[in-house]
């Protein structure tokens, strides 16, 4: 199986979106189950959300909704979508305003400001919630954008099918090619539902025996990018194709942070908390099926660079430990905002 990707030789940032590496986590693979991680921080702005952001912007351009030097993009986000939208939009000549929960990490907010975004902070929990009475970030973004449609464009990752097609047309085909069609299970954390439905649909069309495992966060969680679907309703984008999901896993803060540290110790890779959630679910399922031969592929949405303050606050890494792992981490990429 191919376990690496070749990036385009062009320095064009947009051309670097996608074709992210797939690596085997040999410390975690078992005699029967091979564990692979899709390293999405190799996208130019550091996460899986680069794909959806680019597809949503290009779709709006095709529909003549976005106009250079006039349109402002506004979006509610817990971080990665905002970073991707801001970076890509700035590269293409658009201004960006981001509505973001106060609890999002300081590093994430600093990156957004560095890229040129105007931030509007709300008192939401970690992720903007979907559902009546709990969607302050989403409601504020609507309140700003709706009265001025000639200026503001809200991609709305929670409903925009371009989010789904980004993964149906790129992430899914990449995984199928990189595993030579041998993938048996696909794992990813759930926020908007774009990654799991787009990738899952493609893989199941290639082989309807592929199992799709959705990972939600525990209630009152600290896992940036994930959501709990008891606290917050599934987004419309997810509801359109939720039948793609075969199994659910609820990630706890404890297991997710613990696994993030274990990945650093065993594989020398510094990951974000949601990647810890994904690997925890992969290992649990592998333990439940010890005699079955499998190829597990999980989305590692981002690396740990944005989470230094969170990891220190939660006692996962001391500042010195974090700096050591960051310096020695394998598979780190050059980000477009560094």
Explain what this protein looks like in three dimensions:
- This protein is α/β, with parallel strands linked by helices and 338 residues long.
- It has 2 domains: 14-47 and 170-328, 3-Layer(aba) Sandwich (Rossmann fold), CATH 3.40.50.1100; 49-153, Rossmann fold.
- 38% of the residues lie in helices and 16% in strands.
- It is built from 11 helices and 10 strands.
- It has helices at 49-62, 80-92, 106-115, 136-145, 161-178, 194-206, 236-239, 253-267, 273-288, 308-313, 319-328, and strands at 22-24, 33-39, 72-76, 95-101, 118-122, 152-153, 185-189, 211-217, 247-251, 294-300.
- A 6-stranded mixed β-sheet has the order 1-2-10-7-8-9. A 4-stranded parallel β-sheet has the order 5-4-3-6, with helices on both faces.
- Helix 2 links the parallel strand 3 and strand 4.
- The radius of gyration is 19 Å and the shape is globular.
- The two termini are 32 Å apart.
Comma- or semicolon-separated keywords:
single chain, 338 residues, 6-stranded mixed beta sheet, 4-stranded parallel beta sheet, 38% helix, Rossmann fold, alpha/beta
Helix/strand layout:
Blueprint: E1 22-24, E2 33-39, H1 49-62, E3 72-76, H2 80-92, E4 95-101, H3 106-115, E5 118-122, H4 136-145, E6 152-153, H5 161-178, E7 185-189, H6 194-206, E8 211-217, H7 236-239, E9 247-251, H8 253-267, H9 273-288, E10 294-300, H10 308-313, H11 319-328
Parallel strand pairs: 2-10, 3-4, 3-6, 4-5, 7-8, 7-10, 8-9
Antiparallel strand pairs: 1-2
Helix pairs in contact: 1-2, 1-5, 2-3, 5-6, 8-9
